[in-house]
């Protein structure tokens, strides 16, 4: 343990590691290099020990001053305790045994319950309790918190050890030096205030900036009028009452011309608004807020303004189609107050969102962000990795994809981050289910038996209505590693103005190696409605600049989508008739829909195409007639509805 009273130079002191804390085991011989030495790659960046290491870990806790305020029996027990240096806090509640808490454990210090006399002994040796029931010890970082009964009498004390640890911000040193505002998130006790104190010292002493600390509870710079040396040359402004913190924040900017303002525990809407006012004046902000992840702030109406605020907006028809979402969506209301967010999950594991605006936008649109995860290894080196979204992170990547990327595989997208789709399997189970569902709907009349005979004769040998040539081609597609133009499979398609539900239905039913993407930069092709492309010069320009081809369809229907995807995958063969998989056309898959589509298919294949005669179908609902229209279009035939409800029906004409 190193005391500030022993020396004025921290650079010549040896670090004292705490139990179980690898951060404190960093070698005192290693020095930190500038942030520009950080060597990062797209998915992982390791900062080697010889390039960047954590600062020398210097600890000062003035533990003896905290022990002096405790009753003699408790003090003597702690002075002889082997884990004294890792003490977190001492809890004294009237009528209960005193308790000492260490990382991961707690133990009683005496068999004698705490009395009112014991509490009064400690209260007389600390400063005055403020409106937040906190007090301190002069020129130390220790915090004494009181629990009161309904009459306002103190019935319990929490004596928390305050430690100044120099060198804790090595993991985010480059971010501190960037001049951007930083928000620290984490649960209580994870070390937010300790990191905040060290950031203030580095900015004031090493970067020589004008730093003002808003110290509401005297927790950052200690109790008393003279601030603790741990904050360096930074100035400290005390707050008379916690509810006045936002006023002191504005006062600091107006009166003391700071370059950096440090705030601990932003917790009210007024404080969040004051922080935004300060940021808009060009002052760097460094603050903390309770909440493990940035998602907690988004859901918190009081603090959501720190990350830009949330509002409900109504999209136009074109934008809703482009996004494939509802018209009413949640959007970020304004630029975030803090440019960077650091989630302190553990003392040696911090998640960094370098661009808070992009992270919030991704979360609101249902996408997982890809933040940095910074840790410290046993050698004291900072290691930076990138968290992958859960869906990708849980999917193991096949080795051959890595090999292709390593060899510079031919194609547009050789990243190796997508797994190929499994080979299609067209089992008989779904075929039998459809046949039984249809048969159960028919009676034993002669017309029904004739229909059953036509049905038996018309079923193709391959199940699900897929011809052998088409099935062979799909099998060939599943074994290919590149598309017709050299792009890697699966093919990444950026849809514009096309129903995403219908696209997903076609891709899943035909088991096509196609992945829909919302990022045109990662797309191999753009699939759009022809009318939308004509009126959207920006889309054409973006596709041209990225060398992404645009494929258009005339109408937003299933047959058009099927044909366009087959063309994209080079599956079209004019000599082979197109397969008709009825599962592409029905919506709910109920028996009425299947029966109506089978009726239309039989009429086309048995009468309209071979005999060249028009056919009238049975009366159906408008929903089912629409499916029959799409099926007729699939065969390149014209159809029309005629008659009055409920006898309105479809007529299919030969080509």
Number of strands: 27
The main sheet orders its strands as 1-20-19-18-17-10-14-13-11-12
Poorly predicted runs are: 1-55, 390-443, 458-480, 573-579
Shape: elongated
Number of helices: 21
- Helix/strand/pairing category: alpha/beta
Radius of gyration, in angstroms, nearest whole number:
35 Å
Major sheet size, sense and barrel closure = 10 strands, mixed
Strand content: 15-25%
Tell me, rounded to a whole number, the average pLDDT.
Answer: 76
The percent range for helix content is: 25-40%
Alpha-carbon distance between the two ends: 92 Å
Based on the model shown, name its key terms.
disordered N terminus, single chain, alpha/beta, six-stranded antiparallel beta sheet, 655 residues, ten-stranded mixed beta sheet
How would you summarize this macromolecular structure in one to three sentences?
The protein is an alpha/beta fold. The chain has 21 helices and 27 strands.
What does this structure look like?
This protein is α/β, with parallel strands linked by helices. The chain is built from 21 helices and 27 strands. It has a ten-stranded mixed sheet with strand order 1-20-19-18-17-10-14-13-11-12, sandwiched between helices. It has a six-stranded antiparallel sheet with strand order 5-4-3-8-7-6, with no helix packed on it. Strand 26 (638-642) and strand 27 (649-653) form a beta hairpin. Helix 20 runs parallel beside helix 21 (622-634). The chain is elongated and about 110 Å long. Mean pLDDT is 76; it is low at 1-55, 390-443, 458-480 and 573-579.
